[in-house]
């Protein structure tokens, strides 16, 4: 019985951060934890899926999602992050680099610096400018 409880905890208690999913063991098949593999269906997925919004602010959304596989939760996390508009350094001109860091690595690291900007003033790839003011 103890191993069954341990499997239940491994299935239910995961933590999704901005970079990765924490406290998760990797398994080969999404139905690893199911006692009855015939229960894998769209109907059972819909019945077991529960989404609770714990808090919602202008800058943060905290959601509790249960009843789905870890890989699906990670896919949802990645989709949400990719849809958030961000600003980064795109072109870097280096005149003289005397450090031990190669130019390409330095340019890449500059591109990773988060830049605080008003998202309403972004010029998107399709040329649209969204200006609410």
Write structural notes for this entry:
With 133 residues, the protein is an alpha+beta fold. It has two domains: 2-82, no CATH class; 86-133, no CATH class. The chain has helices at 2-12, 42-48, 70-82, 103-111, and strands spanning 15-16, 21-22, 50-56, 61-66. A two-stranded antiparallel sheet has the order 1-2. Strand 1 and strand 2 form a beta hairpin.
Topology:
Layout: H1 2-12, E1 15-16, E2 21-22, H2 42-48, E3 50-56, E4 61-66, H3 70-82, H4 103-111
Antiparallel strand pairs: 1-2, 3-4
Helix content: 25-40%
> What's the count of strands?
4
| Total discrete domains | 2
Biggest sheet details: 2 strands, antiparallel
Radius of gyration: 21 Å
- Between the first and last Cα atoms, what is the distance in angstroms? 62 Å
Query: Helical element count?
Result: 4
User: What is the SS-derived class?
Assistant: alpha+beta
Quickly list its features:
4 helices, 133 residues, alpha+beta, 2 domains, elongated, two-stranded antiparallel ribbon
Summed up:
With 133 residues, this protein is of the alpha+beta class. The protein has helices spanning 2-12, 42-48, 70-82, 103-111; strands spanning 15-16, 21-22, 50-56, 61-66. Strands 1-2 form a two-stranded antiparallel ribbon. Strands 3-4 form a two-stranded antiparallel ribbon.
């Amino acid at each position: 019985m103890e191993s069954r409880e341990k499997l239940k905890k491994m299935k239910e208690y995961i933590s999704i951060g901005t970079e990765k999913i924490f406290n998760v063991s990797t398994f080969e098949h999404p139905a690893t934890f199911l006692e009855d593999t015939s229960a894998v269906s769209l109907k059972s997925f819909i019945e077991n899926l529960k989404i609770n919004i714990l808090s919602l602010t202008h800058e943060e959304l905290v959601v509790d999602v249960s009843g789905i596989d870890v890989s699906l939760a990670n896919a949802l996390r990645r989709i949400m992050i990719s849809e958030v508009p961000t600003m980064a350094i795109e072109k870097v001109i280096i005149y003289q680099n005397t450090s031990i860091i190669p130019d390409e690595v330095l340019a890449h690291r500059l591109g990773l610096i988060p830049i605080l900007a008003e998202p309403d003033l972004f010029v998107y790839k399709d040329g649209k400018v969204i200006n609410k003011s």
